[in-house]
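Example 3.2
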Amino acid sequence: MACPLLSVKLHAFADDNQLHVHYDHSNVLSSVNAPEQCVTAISCWMSANRLKLNAEKTELMWAGTKYNVASLLRVHDPSVTLGTNTVKVSDAVRVLGVLFTPNLALDKHATTVSAKCFFKLRQLRSIRRSLDRESAATLIHAFVTIVV
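Structure, written as tokens:
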């Protein structure tokens, strides 16, 4: 789905919308304005239908090679203004539970998941002596599966 009259692609989930804009370095300002206009249109539609756009939970990430993203951030301030709120660029965004960085690497996601798993396993340490081997294995599997 695309936002009317704009070069913005929209992916809508149950309670989450994602806007994707392809930008050219020579035309960054219009690339910043396109999602602003699209989100403003979405916000107006939501208000007309008694819904609220939560600007505090809105995230912005510019994706590309390290060089392209660094040069973009050095030359421009590609933040987006939504009403009275300004959305700054994030170093990582969560998409359906997966953490992405601007170069679309999953290293931050892997680190986060392994930290959560390690925390859960450390929690089991306190009750390990009270469990038989099979029960401990079942709990470990359940906790790790929930985290991932």
